[in-house]
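Lab meeting prep.
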Amino acid sequence: MNKKVLFITPSMSKGGAETQLIKVALFLKSLDYEILIISLKHINEFDIKYEKEGIPVLFLNNWNLNPIANSRLLYQTIKAFKPDTVIAFMFIAIVFARLLKSLLKFRLISSIRIAVLTRKWYLPFIVTSGLDDAIVYNSKASKQNFENRRFIDKKGIVINNGITIPVLTSQANCGMPGGKFVWVCIAHFRWNKDYNTLFKAIAKLKGMNFRVDIIGEYNNQNNPFPVIKELKIEEYVNILGFKHNTASYLENADAFLLSSFSEGMPNALLEAMSYSKPVVVTDIECNNEVLNASGCGYLFEQKNEHDLAAKMVDMMNMSLEERNTLGENGRDYIQKNFAEDGVMNSWLKLINQYSENQEVIK
């Protein structure tokens, strides 16, 4: 009989956590596990035909309008599916899964994807703590912070984000002496990505020969063009919008840039490193962990456009050979610690461990 694994997620937004969830679900499906995903919000940003892939997704409706119906559907769906293991990604899903476990008695693996316990989830997360069977972090920084502050009552393990290691078809950094220096930034236009700091830094570098290609989704609420026009940096910023495939942009860039002041473990950074790109990123816990271990670029003080501009200048003033060395450092680190095969096998080992002797949901 095939093992059944149920995933619970806040939504199917196109973020790092959700991307990893899908990778794990598809991997388990390839091994003939029966998979079901429950999305607590009716948000789907992935261009995936879930049923065709064998990983059906149940999207719940607006909770403000349907709290009782959603609760009943959530309970009945899990009871009918009879999962051997439930995996909850991120705080709200963890809280829901813990409460449901108290009723349905399944094995629960909770996956924490960020180093900071946000204020709005602090009380429900602490009150329900202790109902998890296992805790998974995606960074050492998250594990250390949660265990040192005793947000969790048991020791967890770190399973890194799984990254597909690309086969490079060109030089690690392809910039030519005297040519335009091309940065690539991959991040949706959301509050934590702090594009205002990036744009202000770019404005300080007017007159230098560079361009920043930005790949990310935006809408009327987070339209970047008024700020770009106000700072008069149109010739330095190339807004590309959302792209399903970023490989060519990463491969042809000289360096990677990310100005976020809050992240879990950014897939965009890890992917840039896998393409041998030197990086300039914010000095926050997850980035600090990766860059200090790999030596692949520069950290700058968060929300500090002066420091960001200075680090960008330092990177652009490097020789091609120096940047290539940084890029090779990053790629080597990703290959050793984030390669997808090893990461998926770590998940498989954990899931099998907690699927043994599973109590039957009655």
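Slide two material, second protein:
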Amino acid sequence: DLSMIDNEWGNAKYPLIAGHEIIGIVTELGNEASNKGLKVGQRVGIGWTADSCQHCDCCIAGKQVLCENGSTATIVKHAGGFAESVRAGWQWVIPVPDNLNPEVAGPLLCGGITVFDPLLRHQIQGVHKVGVIGIGGLGHMAIKLTSAWGCEVTAFSSNPDKTDEILAMGAHHVVNSRDKTALRALRGQFDLIIDTVNASLEWASYYAALAPEGKLHVVGMVLEPIPVPASMLIGGAKAVTGSPTGSPLALRQLLRFAARTGVEPTVEVFPMSKINDAIQHLRDGKARY
């Protein structure tokens, strides 16, 4: 939201109505949404995507997040969740389980699905070892979700002061990402490493930390090119991959999983009357997770 308000990506159109992790109540169903399982009065959520074409090959295959005709982002030329009401394509309106606290469900719809989708995409199971780079908004949800998934989770953080909090989130190990010796000691361990930060890293150390056929999955918007040596790809059959958010099915699965396992993002709550204070709180870097 803040990136769009500040036009950091160059595609903001003003006046802009932000809010892309929305929990609300269905007030009306259009013709296309009739008989699709949604009901007036039902609690639902909308994330980064509000609609897709529903007829390209990706949409037909259930990969609507990759819509070939360009999906509709909830806050790009579209009224987002800070409006009094929001319209969206029925597939992207996600039912919220009754036992999932609506105050914590919102972040799952964008940040949460961004780090959950790699688990589905790479068929990660409880027997696997997963690393998470960067323990902020995305990273802290990655730790909670992968821990609940049953994985052995290692957090890579540049802030040692967060160690106790990170362990409380479910991580089994915390490694100082600035400690090259500690990184070298992890050689060949990880089936999946999720990179949530938007900065260049000691890439060679993380490639070395991957197990054979391991994946380094990028969800942080790294602005510089990432060097990928062919010897690493060939010798260990390793891969560097990436993904956006996730499909409507993955979003539904995530909310059901979070409701069943009790996974909740760490949030701070402001009344809507204090939305400008909340935005400034975020702009000042004071938000915790």
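Talking points for slide two:
The longest strand covers residues 210-218.
The CA atoms of residues 137 and 289 lie 4 Å apart.
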